Amino acid sequence: MSSNEFLPISRRDLLVGAAALATTTALPAGVKAAPAKFRRWNISDPNCPPRVITSYKKAIRAMLQLPATDPRNWYRYTLIHTLDCPHGNWWFLPWHRGYVGLFEQICRELSQDADFALPYWDWTKEPRVPKAMFDDVLDPNNPAFVATAAEFKAQFKDAIAKASYWDTTKSPDGSISPSPQYNQLLIRSIRFPDDLWFDIIDSPAGALFFDKGHARGLSAAEPDLLIPGVTPDKQAVLKAVSLPTILDALGPRDFLSFGSPKALGHSSSSGFGVLENQPHNLVHNCVGGAYNGVNGFMQGFMSPTDPIFYLHHANIDRLWDVWTRKQIARNAPYLPDGAPTAPGQTPTPGSDYVRWAREDFVFFIDAKGQPAPQATAGAYAEIGAFDYDYSPGSGEEVVPVTPQPPGPAVVASSLPAKLTRQTVAGASVTEGAVTVPLDVVRQQAEPQQPKLFASITVDLPAGGHDDLDVFIKDDDGKPQFVATLSMFGHHVMREPVTFQVPLSAALSDLQKARKFDANPALNIQVVPRPRQANVKAMAPARQGAERAAHDAAGHGNAGNTADVTAISLRQL
Ligand SMILES: [Cu+2]
Prior knowledge:
Layout: H1 11-24, E1 38-40, H2 50-65, H3 74-84, H4 92-111, H5 149-161, E2 168-170, E3 176-178, H6 180-187, H7 193-202, H8 236-241, H9 243-249, H10 255-258, E4 271-272, H11 274-287, H12 308-329, H13 352-357, E5 388-390, E6 415-416, E7 418-424, E8 427-435, H14 438-443, E9 452-459, E10 467-474, E11 480-485, E12 497-502, H15 504-514, E13 521-529, H16 532-537, H17 540-552, E14 563-571
Parallel strand pairs: 1-5, 4-12
Antiparallel strand pairs: 2-3, 6-14, 7-8, 8-13, 9-12, 9-14, 10-11, 10-13
The structure holds copper (II) ion.
The site of copper (II) ion (CU) has 4 residues, from helix 11.
């Protein structure tokens, strides 16, 4: 491809972009001038009303005390995530908005606090578990929670067996068809209750239930988002929540680059936008204790057992709202292509938006424990009837105060890197060589210019818990740490996944240090880094069994290590 597709925004592009958008984007539907009814506060903000925390505790206690047959029971609500959560695809954001928003309504009902709204955790401002979250039932190690996996099974076995999850209908001709919920479970290879119990308690890929004492990885004594034994320049979780990473995550100019990419359905993973792969995944894994050997709920699909889950996801949802308001202020689209651009308008038939919006979310329940009437992705495209807003937090600065001209349309082209592989100290290191136009390197320091990202495609082994460190270097420089790629949970991988990795900070640093005067030849290095604790916890025999199961499933990558299959650079 020619490098002029990577040039900075010119005045001409701006005018062309503005004209194109003027015809496609009217004032978006669902944007309200009135203040929201509920406000989600930063839990550590001195202005956060004390009642928020009191009511949250009251609601948690009430949910823990409900019988196992009530779908609003604390663990039954957690299981909605275990059974149905999307990760690594473009339904990640709307599904979690619905899940957290409906949870908030249940809390409002059960705390009898009619003004209740969830607090959020701004990990950029506060890169440690907030102090309040170690108190009383906000700590999942509190005696009010179920103590062991065995006790959990004893208490919930019957209720789960009798739940609607497994419903089928019999036609007059005798054929049996699964209910929509059961259909989703079959996609996730959960055929009957024993499959679910296997995942929760016995899976060699890592259990989902963590006994008392191990419910959370971080503690009041060591609450920081730190990886033990790692030098300050490679503290991946701190980097993932840092303001430069958050500003890069908010940079992309279309929904698919900001959120995560398309996939076959919401139970398959195809890739991760920066918001999901950096702060989302790494905070989950770190709070879950993946890096310090404690292990806890937050690193897996029963993560909503830890009350901090909802504060973490409220912050992810807040950043989606920030990005949406940034797009609106720039008169740019904020939903997949084909979305209605004015109230009453119908979406474009056959468009991305239509495919995205009609995805069914069939496990959601409302404040009374009934199936939620809003059961598709499109119902959660806006905050809408949830009617909350957020007290301003990190990243808010990307929203222009006055309306701005739109940026140029997104250029879908990419600069492919040439891959080589070598073994360094027993680890398979992949290098991608690519020459970057000097203009693009220079514009990385300018906040208004499109940012540069590396798209790194990885074929992951089924039980792969290893992380991948990404470095960048020029011809004779020393590698500079960029980010760590980390998976979350145990989705069945049916295809390689692509991670978007922000390069703007590293490139502006390089440019400052080296003062390139020609297009620099750069190397993107991807180096595996075992999560020590997990590797030790997994017995070799189990790794073998896992590999065998993996082979039987017909997956391409039967090894124990991740294969990097492509690296390219993109302006998003
Ligand atoms: Cu999550």
